[in-house]
Every structure is written in structure tokens, then in C-alpha cells.
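Lab notebook, bench 4. The sequencing result for the construct came back, and we need a structural model before the next group meeting so we can plan mutations. Quick request posted to the team channel:

Model the 3D structure of this chain.
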Amino acid sequence: MPPDSPPACNAHCHPGRRTLLVTRPAHEAAAWVQAVQAAGWPAEALALIEITPALDPQARHQAHLQAAGCDALMFVSAQAVRHFCSPDGPPITARCWAPGPGTAAALRATGIAPEQIDQPPADAALFDSEALWAVVQPQLHPGHRLLVVRGQSADGRMGRDWLEQQCRAQGGQVHSCVAYRRSAPQWDAGTAERVRERVRNGAVWLFSSSEAIQHLQQLLPDGSWAQAVALVSHPRIAASAKQLGFGEIMAHRPTIDDLLRALSELPAP
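Done. Here's the predicted structure in C-alpha cell form:
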């Protein structure tokens, strides 16, 4: 463990605080767990989405050539940035659209200048396509070329295309590139029983996508959620948690500060 990492923290560290299960993909979950633990909350990573690359080197090269002729690239998530941008690829000169702060941070980490990135304002009520559209709509003109860099589910689903529809309605040309694939993790009997124990002990679930909730239902079909708490970052995710049967659902924006504020408002276990 690196010397600057916080000590491992579980429910025994803070008996009055529930353990937070961070269901983001493993690459992202670690940073969230570390930040929550540093703030004094017990937290564990329990990735409910596995990410694998969809672009081989030749396909990535072709996608970069296509991007070079575009006015803007929309990255649907930080994962899209990580699986599309490569150190040996050509520099990206187009505008880069990010629906939220995590995606924008990933773009900056690859060397994209902050002034090249368009994203919702920091005080936006939600970070999604609608909030992004309010920022980028003035860029649209007939013939505007947009490349959407996205992921694909195991069943072939691509996700919402609301923003693409808005661009086309204003005369824009929209293409897409699948940079990564999403799938449910594989659990053995021991993992499933460990998760059941967390449920019995009142763990709190952090969801950043409806797909993670769908995978949870597949992985633990006998789960009982009436007494469980879900922290969600968007109304669509809240609807999925409600459909699964979560007894309490609390909304927050997908930032660490907003998450910690939501945790502080949790009822005592």
C-alpha cells in the first residue's frame, strides 16, 4: 500500500456509519473509495460493470483519422476517454464535449487543454446530455461534424442518443465510435454470499448507472432491497433503483463533496 494511502476502513472503524459499496467500474471505484475513506467513512469497491476495450490498434487508428475531420468529439464517460485517447495517437484539435466533471478530468489527464473542453457549469443541477447541450448548442451549424465516443453493453445497447438527435435536427452530421464494452462481472458463490452479508448489515449502495443496477439484479436475483439505501446521481438511476425495490433512494450530484454531504444525511443504522 502506498505510504500516502489512508488505512483500510470498514464498518468496525466507525460503528455508527454504514459501509458504502462503490459500484463504479474498478478503475474508477478505487479513487472514490479512497476519498470516502479519507473522509472517515467505511467504503468498499464492488464493481458492477466490467470494462474491456473495443478498439484494436488498427481500429483506433481509423477512429483517430475520422476524428481529425470533426468539429467536435463527445466523450460519454471517462472510460470513453481512456479507451479512445492514446499517447501515440495524433493530437486532438477538435472541441471535446464532456457531460460531467469526471469525463472532463479524464480529458485533462490526457493533455487536452481546459479551454478546449466544453462541459456543464460546476453548479449545474445535473451532469447529463441536456446540461451539456445548453453549453454546446451555439457551436452547431449545418454540416457540423460530431464524433460520439461511447461504450456498448453486452447486449449491444449503446445508451441514450438524445444529444445526437438534437445535433442532427440542427443540420449536424453525427458519427459514433464504440471505444469500450460493458458487461456484468462474474461472481462465485463466495462473492455472492459476501454481498448478501453486506446487505444484511445495512450497507449503502452508490450507483452511477442504471446498468449497474440491472447487473445487480442478475447477479443477486434473490436479493432483498426493501431496507437498503441507494445513493444515485441521476433521476433515471433513481427510477431503476426504485424498480428493483430499494427502500430508500437519495439523489446527489456525482462529485465527492456532494456524495459526502449525502452520506452525512443518512439515517443512523
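The chain has two domains: 20-49+186-264, 51-183.
Will bring this to the meeting.
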